[in-house]
Amino acid sequence: MKLRWAGFRRVRKQACKRIQRRMAALSCPGVQVYQAYLEAHPREWAQLDALCRITITRFYRDRQVFHTLMEEVLPALARAALQRHATRLRIWCAGCASGEEPFSLAMGWRIALAERFPGLGVDILATDADPDLLSRADRACYDWSVVKNLPPHWLSEAFVRRDEGYCLRPAYREAVRFRLHDLREPLEEGGFDLVCCRNLAFTYFDQALQKHVAGALHDRLVPGGVLLLGVHECLPEGGPPFQVISQRLGLYRKA
């Protein structure tokens, strides 16, 4: 698994409750008994791994980050893409959960930036290791608590109110492709202008795995491409060459 328990500091109750329920279902009265069960049943490691996935997300999470993306980062990447005669700005959202981050980017591009770059479209690959979350992303309907941070005109333009909640209009879903993928495994695609990997690898993975993931993300970016981490994350020491754009916002550029 190669997870880092310190990364679960703020959410350890959530992970512990899940594991305790699993132990009860297996009639394991304590941790040592569950450890013995893991040793005797190797397939249980996959179950434990799934129990340790933490999902805390919403649209437009970290307002200043999205403001900087819309005002500075994406326009600069768009200009660079046009200079190399690209027709698509390519984005990868790793650990996309139920789609809030990639859909936020798709809305921002369509509402705030598309008219400024008429020769350029956007293609967003959104990946996650949890098929249930991807099913929720495919439905694209959300509670008020998940959409309330959006700029009001984005919310009114991109969503329609239904019994299921706030449902994203089809036009704002076209740019996003969802795929089941574990960040610890290779991704065959590359050539991304922006990679978003927030509050996942550099919070919950151990140091060695963080370096491995950082190298894989670096390889998937175009020269000058941007990597976005969570605001409380940083790249591991001794990793691939990135230039700091804003450590406070978790923004790095491929050197």
Number of helices: 10
Order of helices and strands: HHHHEHEHEHHEEEEHHEEE
Mean pLDDT: 92
Largest sheet: 7 strands, mixed
Q: How would you sum up the global shape? A: globular
What is the straight-line distance between the termini? Answer: 30 Å
What are the low-pLDDT stretches, counting only 5+ consecutive residues below 50?
none
Report the helical percentage.
40-55%
The side-by-side strand order for the widest beta sheet comes to 6-2-1-7-8-10-9
Give the oligomeric state: single chain
The tally of beta strands, per DSSP, is 10
Q: Specify the structural class.
A: alpha/beta
Percent of sequence in beta strands? 15-25%
Radius of gyration: 19 Å
Provide structural commentary.
- This protein is of the alpha/beta class and 255 residues long.
- It is 41% helix and 20% strand.
- The chain has a seven-stranded mixed sheet with strand order 6-2-1-7-8-10-9. Strands 3-5-4 form a three-stranded antiparallel sheet.
- Strand 4 and strand 5 form a beta hairpin.
- The relative contact order is 0.13.
